[in-house]
Amino acid sequence: MKVMCWIRNLKYQIALLVLLSLCSCSTALHLKPASHMIHESTRKQQQQIAPPSPVELPSRPTNQPIVGSFISKIDVNHLAIWLKNLTLFPDRYYQSQNGVRAAQWIENAIQSLPVPSDAKLTTKLVHHRDILQPSVIARYESKIPTTLKGIVITGSHFDTYAKNSPQGVGGPNPAADDCASGSAAVFEALRVLTTNGFIPGRPIEFHWYAGEEEGLYGSLDIANTYAAKGIEVLSYLNLDQSGYVKPGTRPEVGIYTDYTTSAATKFLSSIVSTYSGLPQVGSQVCGYACTDNASWFLAGYNTAMAFESQDGNSFPHNDEVHSDGSPLDTLNLINMTHVSAFAKITTGFVVELSLTNTSSKEK
Ligand SMILES: [Zn+2]
Questions:
Q1: How many domains does the chain fold into?
Q2: Distance from the CA of 50 to the center of ligand 1, in angstroms?
Q3: Distance (Å, rounded) from C-alpha 54 to C-alpha 50?
Q4: Is the peptide bond before 179 cis (omega within 30 degrees of 0)?
Q5: Separation of 347 CA from ligand 1 center, angstroms?
Q6: Of 49, 58, 332, 344, which is most buried with the most CB atoms under 10 A?
Q7: Is residue 208 part of a domain?
Q8: Distance between Cα 217 and ligand 1 center (Å)
Q9: What is the mean pLDDT of residues 237-266?
């Protein structure tokens, strides 16, 4: 996430500039130094596209007994095996066949999950223009018709980048923290729900994005498509790095407040307090569109972002390898218990919003 720089990729830069050019605010072209101006103006423009959430987001959890029963089933060992297996691809670069195989592997893992008879789990690869790697979407929903409107979405990117690699930026990198960890937490949340018989209220989607490191390719495409189709989403929850605890520091959760919305962030904060067992540090900022929640935010949706730590304590070598090609972002640096806390957060967030029956917004 951190080293992902949107100016790396010309096409992404052009796409964002086109987006910004639609705004009346001329100062929106002052990029990083005026990031608040950018996201406020782009948000205003994009809100005309994405429909609002069909309900007000709750301010706190209301389904603790149900959520607790699934969180108790989160299995650190299962999560660790899944995370390790994802790192076994030599790379997961967005323009490599390994990156494609990693997507297919995630899809196969989803298809292998048991599903209760009253629920339906569907999965698909989403192909994007100009890049080789597809994103992966799993949709989990009840077979019983519901009057609850909208869907809930969580996601993480799974692609890799290898700055300083002798083979170029598409070179080998296990990228255990960035972002096998977030990918594994998202999968574990899905696994405990389908395996232990949760029947969603409104549908829940779990996304694994292609091409984040090079410019949010997968999430931009999907978020803009959903907005254009008028798909109602209560909120999107993003995970990125979720596995590193800096030596000498306490395990904690960083809550990001740029490219996120206040209602979703407030709800996420209450979810972290209730279900993660970890302290949280709020008001963290990237200062630019650093990860996939920015895509949903720019499309006009509610978004929230939970991160492995406060900004200054995060993994310092994401997206990098040694100049001889040997990896830096390795499995041995991952705290699997910490990753499991993010699976708890994800489970709490999506189950609560899947079931919430707060009254519809006045329109
Ligand atoms: Zn990342």
A1: 1
A2: 25
A3: 11
A4: yes
A5: 20
A6: 344
A7: yes
A8: 13
A9: 98
The ipTM (two decimal places) reads: 0.99
Residue 362 has pLDDT above 70, yes or no: no
- What's 232's domain CATH number? 3.40.630.10
1 part of a folded domain: no
Answer whether residue 363 is part of any domain.
no
Average pLDDT over residues 230-255: 98
Confidence of residue 359 (pLDDT cuts 50, 70, 90): low
What is the 324 CA–ligand 1 centroid distance (Å)? 22
Query: Is residue 148 within 8 Å of residue 201, measured between CB atoms?
Result: yes
Q: Name the residues around ion ligand 1, CB cutoff 5 A.
A: 1, 178-179, 240
pLDDT tens digits for range 96-149:
999 999 999 999 999 999 999 999 999 999 999 999 999 999 999 999 999 999
Say how many Å lie between the CA of residue 289 and the centre of ligand 1: 12
Give the phi and the psi of residue 307 in degrees, each rounded to 5: -130, 160
Distance (angstroms) between ligand 1 centre and the Cα of 158 equals: 8
Q: How far is the CA of 63 from the centre of ligand 1 (A)?
A: 31
- Tokens describing residue 242: 């979720």
Would you state the pLDDT for residue 49?
86
Is there a domain that residue 264 lies in? yes
Query: Which residue pairs, CB below 8 angstroms and at least 24 apart, start in 123-132?
Result: 126/218, 126/221, 126/222, 128/210, 128/211, 128/217, 128/218, 128/221, 129/221, 130/11, 130/217, 131/94, 131/95, 131/210, 131/211, 131/214, 131/217, 132/94, 132/95, 132/96, 132/97, 132/99, 132/100
* 179 pLDDT tier (thresholds 50, 70, 90): very high
Residue-range definition of the domain harbouring residue 41:
6-355
- How far apart, in Å, are the Cα atoms of 35 and each of 17, 40, 259? 13, 8, 9
